[in-house]
UniProtKB/TrEMBL annotation:
This is Insulinase family protein. Coiled coil: none annotated. GO terms for molecular function: metal ion binding. InterPro entries: Metalloenz_LuxS/M16 (IPR011249), MPP/UQCRC_Complex (IPR050361), Peptidase_M16_C (IPR007863). It comes from the Bacteria. Residues 185-360 form the Peptidase M16 C-terminal domain. NCBIfam families: YfmF_fam. Pfam families: Peptidase_M16_C. SUPFAM superfamilies: LuxS/MPP-like metallohydrolase (SSF63411).
Length: 432
């Protein structure tokens, strides 16, 4: 395993994390900007990076913006928008070749930081607001992305289950925002929201490559024109217990296959010392092809096209996803509940435990082969307030027993049952 460690510092509002390494021929940069999930800001925060990618002060036309990336030996630039705990995170990514491997007269890392800093803090403007053409175009882009979710019924069911389970929490909000708010956004209101976002966001800049913290900090201070202030931090997410009795939600759409999703609350977050036990619990339950849900619901009973579980460690949530014939709802639900009961009873076979641990360890070791994966892993620690190295997490997973996984299972409560089914009136015994 790697012995390289992140070096940390700060420049103004921005925390800086540098992983000096010669393993890769590129520099990998990630800039994370997080704000609390809020109904009033979620849509403009989601829209802003789409507009920022269209142009900067020096490269106001999109074609100029892209040509500049080409000039930087084909540097790659992109962004993601997602949720971590109770925060909406925008992550900008840029990767660029180390100038030691090309005939460049300039530091390509410096040019990458210059470009990223300008893309974030010095956007193309007209009349003191965002470019109207870019705003209207990107509003359409965001609208299409939101609407595309309903066409992907697996993702739609997953989002709806979380929305129902977290109906009284900010986490119910889609990271891409609310489509009904897009028409009201103007270039001026979006720019005003963007300026507030720069004032309020928690900023973390990561750089992996053959460099140093001192060098990155010097260039970051020069090229990121953020408002003055001190570095911020993330508050721990609210971890709620499951409802006393699970709620059942049945939604009808024009579908041929039912989607049965269950939302559970674990009471354990990423920072909890029991998190490794929870990882193993989820692995035995449904994260892998050898897991109980896959074997018993899909393989043995032939009731599901797919059956798996997914863990959100930052919110302490665990979700189960399955695609079933609509008439199999009751039977599939019974078998899923049975697997949850088996976990609580500690009925975990040694083979299930060892396979799960091996799969988790493999995943953690594979992280070391990707600079961006190593950055993402470290950022999980920053958001949660609990830093673990991959080696530490691997050691903790190795020490998990069937008994400790069963102890975790005892605290996992079923909160929400969500069933997406067809529009037909038969099989009316399935009721909300």
């Amino acid at each position: 395993m790697q012995t390289e460690v992140f070096q940390r510092g700060a420049v103004g509002r921005m925390r800086i994390h540098v992983l000096p390494t010669t393993r890769f021929k590129t520099f990998s940069l990630s800039l994370f900007a997080g704000v609390p999930l809020s109904e009033s800001t979620v849509t403009p925060v989601a829209l802003a990076p789409f507009v920022l990618r269209r142009g900067t002060r020096s490269y106001p036309e999109t074609i100029q913006f892209r040509e500049r990336l080409d000039e930087l030996y084909g540097a790659g630039f992109g962004f993601d928008i997602y949720k971590r705990g109770d925060y909406q995170i925008v992550q900008f990514r840029l990767d660029i070749i180390n100038d030691a491997f090309v005939s460049s007269s300039q530091s390509l890392l410096e040019e990458a930081l210059r470009f990223l800093g300008e893309a974030l803090t010095e956007p193309a403007l007209e009349g003191g607001a965002f470019n109207a053409k870019y705003v209207e175009s990107e509003k359409t882009t965001v609208l299409k992305r939101i609407e595309s979710i309903i066409n992907d019924k697996i993702r739609y069911a997953a989002e709806r289950c979380l929305e129902e389970m977290c109906r009284n929490e900010p986490y119910r909000l889609l990271a891409l925002g609310r489509k009904e708010e897009l028409p009201q956004i103007t270039p001026a209101t979006l720019y005003e929201s963007y300026r507030r976002w720069l004032d309020e966001a928690v900023f973390d800049l990561y750089v992996s490559g053959d460099t140093s913290l001192e060098q990155v900090a010097a260039w970051a201070g020069q090229y990121f024109k953020l408002p003055d202030g001190q570095p911020g931090g993330y508050r721990a997410a609210e971890i709620k217990p499951a409802s006393e009795a699970p709620r059942t939600i049945v939604e009808r759409l024009d579908v041929g296959q039912g989607k049965l999703n269950l939302g559970l609350r674990t009471g354990i977050a990423y920072s909890d010392d029991r998190y490794p036990d929870l990882l193993v619990y989820n692995g035995v339950l449904g994260a892998f092809p050898h897991s109980k849900l896959f074997i018993h619901v899909r393989e043995k009973a032939s009731l599901a096209y797919y059956a798996s579980s997914r863990l959100d460690g930052h919110k302490g949530l665990l979700t189960i996803q399955s695609g079933i014939e609509i008439a199999n709802y009751e039977r599939a639900l019974d078998i899923i509940r049975e697997q949850l009961d088996q976990m609580r009873a500690g009925n975990i076979e040694e083979q299930e435990l060892s396979k799960t641990k091996a799969m988790l360890v493999n995943q953690l070791r594979e992280i070391q082969d990707s600079a961006f994966e190593r950055i993402a892993f470290d950022f999980n620690g920053v958001v949660s307030g609990k830093q673990r190295s991959a080696d530490e997490l691997i050691a903790a997973i190795a020490s998990v027993t069937a008994e400790s996984a069963a102890a975790v299972a005892g605290g996992v409560g079923l909160d929400t049952i969500y069933f997406l089914r067809d529009l037909k009136e038969e099989a009316a015994h399935v009721q909300a």
